[in-house]
Every structure is written in structure tokens, then in C-alpha cells.
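call fold(seq) -> C-alpha cells
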Amino acid sequence: FLCRKRYELKNHYHDNTTSKNYLHDIVYRQNLDAVAIVLYRLENDSLSDENIFLLLRKQLRPGLYFRNQFHIPLPENEPQEFQYEIVAGIIETEDIGETGILSRAKKEAFEEAGVILNIENIFPLGHPFYPSSGVIPEKLYLYHAEIPKDQTEFFPQGDGSAVEEITSIEFFSLSQIKSMIAYGLILDAKTIIAAYRLKEIL
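ret:
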């Protein structure tokens, strides 16, 4: 699933000098980029933080359970292997161009949250960004969509993996989410970025 490439590099500068040769590792997937989508609903016509509700997944991230087996600068009292996150997924080989990315966002919304969307109701949420550019060249495309008002039940399909078996979905107001971010209850970078970007465009 994950691969590593090691490059021997040399920087070339404008004054025609160069750096020493150095090694640089890149970690990547065969399908490199990903898409995330903020799914939200409005309780009424008000766009206050108390009336904007985001759908978050309580997602198992097994790798976080093992953090204390590595050298980390500060001790952690207990693992934080469950993270609140927005819906996201890998862009597959068949997802070509912007239409392909939108199609993947729609599929992930249904698979991970049970939300049924039309592509024309999915909109970009700012520019894509690099989640961890020091080692991974992945780019994350961010979108948003309002959950159809007539949808009141949600039955995520999941991808069949054991990790998905214990995932749950919950709604939080944007006001609650900002507090959760402030108190370290939401630590996922794409979710934090998405929450603040969403407020800017609504």
C-alpha cells in the first residue's frame, strides 16, 4: 500500500553554485492524492455557529495507538487512536479530472456517511493543500456540500475493513467544533482546516 523512493539530490542556485549531494526519501501510495468533503446541515436560516452542524466520523486510526513506542518529545497519558474527522478517501485511478474528483467525493460521502448527494451540489472549499509535504507529496482536495434536507437517516456502507467496523458518525455544531479544536479534542488537520474554511464561505 505504501512505497518509499530514495533520491540523491543536489540543489542548483541562481548564482550557479550547488549544494552538496543529499538523500531524500518520499513515501507514497500508487494513488497519491485524496479528497475530503465537509458535510453539513443548517438547523434554520441562521448562519450562526450554533446553527451549522457538521457530520464527523469517529474514526479508528491504529497507528496513533503505537505513538508511545517511538521517541516523542512529550509523554502522552493515553493513546488517541480515535479521531473525529470529516469524510475523506483516496482518489482512484479512474477518477480523472475535476469531474472524477467530484465523483469520488460523492462516493465517499455515501460510503463513509450514508449521505446521498448530486455532484452539482458539491463545491470546492478553497485550494487543495499538502498535508505533510516534508515526506509525502500527497495533495488533498477539499469540498463541501449541504446534506439534503429530506435525509434524516444515515447508513454508512463502509469499505469492508475491520477499521471501518467500529466507526461512528456524529453531528456537532460549528460552535462545538471550535471548542473541541481549542481543547485538543479534534486533532485532525484536514478537519480543522475545513471547519474554519466553511465558516468563511457560508
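Residues 10 and 21 are 5 Å apart (CA to CA).
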